Amino acid sequence: MQSSYNLGLVAFSLVVATLASYTALDLADRISLLAYARTRQMWLAGGALAMGIGIWSMHFIGMLSFSLNIPIGYDFAITGYSLVIAVLVSWFALHVVTLDRLKISGLLAGGTLMGLGISGMHYVGMAAMLMKPAIQYDTTIFAASIVIAIAASTAALWLANTLRLAGPNHLMRKRVGAACVMGVAIAGMHYTGMAAADFPVGSICGAAGGIKPQWLAMAVIPFSIAILVVTLLLSRLDARAAFLSNSITRLNEQIDRIQGPAR
């Protein structure tokens, strides 16, 4: 069956993947500095939700860029399952990169599990179309998409952990560069997975009466951008508040030391 892509949405999906990656890097650095376990868990949960929505949004924006010459829709429940997978994978990723020490074995195991999770999100999202007959996948390209997901996830975990432990010199530049690499890798997995899909001639979308692509686009695009931007702002504001609090504490300690001898 003939298909085509909207190049504007393809480019936008890459932007969202990069923004989600940058948010993840920023949150990893912020969470690692938190001393209280309860606060860390709150930021992990919030960060996983924001990062998961970002990765999931990239996937569905990529799906929206893809069109067939038949009506297309998405099953609501299966679409929701794919979002849950994205959030769980994001929680796991943030948890791994904020550990005090990330060993090679942990990096490889974490990258593999995260890659399989992202692949699962992608193919569950594809299944939400309920195509009849079912989508057929080229075995070689299908396997390549999973390998790309695992390699990209391992690289992302390594980059996030490396940047977290690096010094402050050119940190913003390094983080933007790493986010671009991660964004391209995430998008690469998605479009490789799409290339593996074959829609037989005469196929129909069983979910054509479900969520319409137009409505999904109107909901996903602004919502995902808003979630990621708000999360970044909250992270920056919280970091600034913590910096000011520590500065005041150090100033009070200096005043006490100066006044101590005078007393």
Helix content: over 70%
The low-confidence parts are: none
Largest sheet entry: 2 strands, antiparallel
Give the helix/strand class: mainly alpha
Which percent band covers the strand fraction?
5-15%
The first-to-last residue Cα distance is: 87 Å
In N-to-C order, the SSE pattern is EHHEHHEEHHEEH
Overall mean pLDDT score?
A: 80
Coarse morphology: elongated
In total, the number of domains comes to 1
Q: Find the count of extended strands (DSSP E, 2+ residues).
A: 6
Question: How many individual helices?
Answer: 7
Provide a quick synopsis of the model.
The protein is mostly helical and 263 residues long.
Give the helices and strands, then pairings.
Layout: E1 3-5, H1 7-32, H2 37-64, E2 66-68, H3 76-97, H4 104-127, E3 131-132, E4 136-137, H5 139-165, H6 171-196, E5 197-198, E6 204-205, H7 213-262
Helix pairs in contact: 1-2, 1-3, 1-5, 1-6, 1-7, 2-3, 2-4, 2-6, 2-7, 3-4, 4-5, 5-6
Task: Explain what the structure shows.
With 263 residues, this protein is mostly helical. It has one domain. Helix content is 77%, strand content 5%. It contains seven helices and six strands, in the order E-H-H-E-H-H-E-E-H-H-E-E-H. It has helices at 7-32, 37-64, 76-97, 104-127, 139-165, 171-196, 213-262, and strands at 3-5, 66-68, 131-132, 136-137, 197-198, 204-205. The protein has a two-stranded antiparallel sheet. Helix 1 (7-32) runs antiparallel to helix 2, helix 1 crosses helix 6 (171-196) and helix 2 (37-64) crosses helix 6. The longest helix has 50 residues, at 213-262. The chain is elongated and about 85 Å long. The model has no long low-confidence stretch (mean pLDDT 80).
